[in-house]
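4.2 Preliminary Data

To establish feasibility before requesting continued support, the project team ran the inverse folding procedure on a target of 404 residues. The structure was first converted into the token representation described in Section 3, and no sequence information of any kind was made available to the design step. The complete token record follows.
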């Protein structure tokens, strides 16, 4: 993997603010975009703007073809059997809400979350608990943020769990849940599995068939693609059985004043005119990542994470959240320095050194509340980050830890 060449694809990395380069370490929130993605989107807006599946003219046909091509690219990207198993959504949140609202869960059925879910994979189940009386349960993890497989197996053996809704890689600490094992145990107990892969998809080789998951949600903006586009992978028979919760144009084949004949999946779930430029940019991002190879990306991030984790460990009272080994934290270093306010750390790094990280509860408020913490500072790495940038980060953090 040639970082120099990769960085040339990201014009934003040449930016200087107040004469200094930028260090972008907020990739778990939103990643930067390569030229290949913005060019593909520009093509839609400047060369063939139209809509898919409706107009028979040349632009219309081209958009229809590009959307189908993009769906097939994403199908290959996740290892799905059929492109009809890819439903375009606005993001991971919408994909999870789609499952929550269409799966027809019944009163009394249990949905099981881990204790480190993003609000997007927590609140939809809390709402279903209030609305229809599902039982929403939380499975506690180990103190180092890893998954308790034995406790999970124990809970599943008690029965009544209809859906296991689990994050794959946590955006809080980077820990990876063993989805293959979780799925096997869940299926043996008669439950379906929904995976929140918002953080896993950009970094980890994913094959939905090997994992055998039933649903997987992910977002474009975390994997070099545009914001406002995401996808739900689902086994076709499940999509076929589910009724859409958002209906209207494009979800139906025909209507009378009093009836509607629904489209087949995935179209029956894609209501209204879609974000075509977003879909095309999303596929361009998937192609870009495939070309570089996620295994290479993972190796690169891990080596940077290891270096940072070792070098900042000498800072007085600094504590990294999650597994001890950097290898088990993907590209994420989530930390606190004693009682220092994480927002002050992030603001100082940005204002003095143009180092962009995130601070706060990272939308995992429930975990921070349960642990009596206000939040953390989080640096998150990706394929274009360099050793030089980690040096700037470590030096700056060491200096500012003495003054705030
Ligand atoms: C693990 C995880 N799940 C879900 C989400 C929500 O993603 P989106 O805002 O794209 O719906 C995020 C975003 O930070 C995330 O990190």
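Position-by-position output of the design step:
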């Amino acid at each position: 993997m040639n970082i120099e060449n990769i960085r040339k694809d990201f014009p934003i990395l040449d930016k200087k603010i107040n004469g200094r380069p930028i260090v972008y370490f907020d990739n778990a929130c939103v990643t930067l975009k390569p030229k290949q993605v913005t060019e593909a989107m520009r093509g839609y807006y400047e060369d063939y703007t139209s809509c898919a599946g409706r107009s028979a003219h040349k632009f219309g046909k081209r958009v229809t073809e590009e959307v189908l091509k993009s769906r097939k690219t994403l199908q290959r990207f996740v290892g799905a059997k059929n492109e009809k198993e890819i439903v375009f959504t606005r993001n991971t949140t919408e994909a999870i809400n789609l499952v929550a609202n269409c799966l027809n869960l019944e009163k009394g059925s249990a949905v099981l979350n881990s204790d480190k879910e993003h609000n997007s994979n927590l609140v939809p189940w809390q709402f279903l608990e209030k609305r229809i009386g599902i039982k929403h349960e939380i499975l506690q993890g180990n103190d180092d943020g890893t998954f308790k497989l034995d406790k999970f197996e124990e809970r599943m053996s008690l029965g009544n769990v209809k859906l296991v809704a689990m994050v794959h890689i946590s955006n809080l600490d980077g820990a990876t849940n063993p989805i293959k094992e979780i799925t096997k145990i869940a299926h043996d107990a008669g439950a379906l599995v929904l995976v929140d892969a918002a953080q896993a998809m950009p970094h980890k080789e994913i094959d939905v068939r090997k994992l055998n998951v039933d649903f997987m949600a992910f977002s474009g903006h975390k994997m070099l693609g545009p914001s406002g586009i995401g996808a739900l992978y689902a086994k076709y028979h499940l999509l076929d059985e589910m009724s859409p919760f958002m209906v209207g144009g494009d979800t139906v084949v025909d209507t009378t004043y009093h009836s509607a004949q629904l489209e087949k999946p995935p179209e029956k779930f894609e209501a209204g005119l879609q974000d075509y430029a977003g879909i095309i940019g999303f596929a361009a991002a998937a192609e870009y990542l495939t070309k570089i190879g996620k295994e290479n990306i993972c190796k690169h991030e891990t080596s940077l994470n290891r270096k940072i984790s070792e070098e900042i460990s000498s800072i007085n009272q600094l504590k990294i959240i999650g597994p001890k080994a950097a290898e088990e934290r993907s590209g994420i270093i989530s930390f606190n320095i004693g009682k220092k306010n994480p927002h002050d750390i992030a603001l100082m790094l940005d204002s003095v050194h143009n180092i962009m990280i995130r601070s706060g509860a990272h939308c995992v408020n429930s975990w921070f509340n349960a642990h009596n913490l206000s939040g953390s500072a989080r640096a998150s790495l990706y394929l274009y980050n360099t050793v030089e940038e980690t040096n700037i980060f470590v030096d700056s953090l060491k200096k500012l830890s003495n003054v705030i």
